[in-house]
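Known limitations

Files may contain more than one protein. Parsers should not assume a single record per file. Below, a two-record file is shown to illustrate correct handling: read the sequence, read the token line, then continue until end of file.
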Amino acid sequence: MAFGVADPAQSAELTAVLTQLQGNVTIAEAGPPRRGGAIFPVPRPARFLQVVGRGDKVNVPAGAGAGFVCSMDRWVELSGVKDQPLSESLCLAGKPLPPGTYRRLAPAAGKMISLKGVLVFEGETRGDEDEDFAIPLVLSPRRTAVLDPRPKILWTQVADATEYAIELSGPGRFLIRLDAGQVACGERWGDAVVCSMPYPDSAPDLPPGTLSFLSVGARRGLAAPLRAEARPNRIQRLSLDKAEEVRTRLESLRNLPLDDATRGLLEADLYAHEGLFADAILAYRKALSHGDAPEIRVTLGDAYLKIGLLRLAARTYQEVLDGTSGLAIQASAELGLGRIEHIRRSSERAACHFRKARDLYLSVGLKEEAAAADRAARIGGGLR
């Protein structure tokens, strides 16, 4: 991750994204002069991942702090300043970052850029097996590449389960049967209670570059059948060369002069682009603990959807719509709900969500995204 000089085109449209906030930080947005005199912008509370424009004034009282990444790929920290406008000179005084850092952090079209371009929907649609609460769903690792040769295994708790069976087929195969009372459960992902177990000590590492298939089954009573998802979940450990490349890039990120929240978002971006969706999901969930940004929630929903966790994806999108968020963010959530209904083969509902997404995108001038949503709506809720 080499350092470079700022792109002149970026300088011409100077912006910055706020990724570190502590205390009562406010932003007064600049605007065109009103007829008859200057305007007096009203300061508003700053928010995590807010994009600040040229001339916008940042107010950071004593005891508070703010950090942001400029579109010139510079890191700036402020404390104890009043009405500090965003300018080239302010950004140039910051610490240099690798080229492209800003682009990977600034939300676009209502979501993080991380999953744009990798959220390609397959032609086939999966059944609705994840709607059956008597079947445990593998949460992690699930339909993903993996970096760790011994990944922790997570799945949804089944009420009244008496036994769980965790099976890996392919190289390094194993079958572990556990009494439900032996399993650690308690963390919540949405409305799901999460159970987990470490990778078995007796099992060999996942071989580099090879495919394996993971499933978790549950039994409810001594005479009850063992029930699992219809199709085991494909996982593939990265090759040794690729894993080394990813670890090197992660180490580079950890050496950057950034706060934990910003670094965590960059790590999530890297995981997502490398198809390491289990790691990306955990990174985005952790990022939300630093600040509840609806853009991250939409991206998290996209990641859930990518690996077939429809209930979690739908709940995450709906949380965005139920909260306070911008129109582009709402559009992205509606688009996600449309994709879920498409997978569930509910064309009318899918088309309704796509039309809502189209109209919202148009209202904020996002013509390319609006056209994509319109195409999906016009073909009856399908995606092309």
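...continuing to the second record:
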Amino acid sequence: MLVCKHAVIEDDEPTKCKLGLFNGFPEIADCMNCSQFSGMSRGLGDTVAKITKSVGIKPCGPCKKRQAALNKAIPYKKK
């Protein structure tokens, strides 16, 4: 399961969002598609974003859209 550092997990399910998103009570699908997700890579878009950030490239609006599109096109398997 992909875990975001902003989620409070109980019984392998996110029960609360520390950022207060999704009225504070996200579903797994909410966490998986959240623009503030911070955890293991959900797909190729997250991996590319981590690499570009590590070399000093700051993400912009179009970058976030490409990241989401790549995650949707090439998702990693959920554990």
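Parsers that stop after the first record will miss the second one. For reference, the second record is described as follows. The chain has a mean pLDDT of 84.
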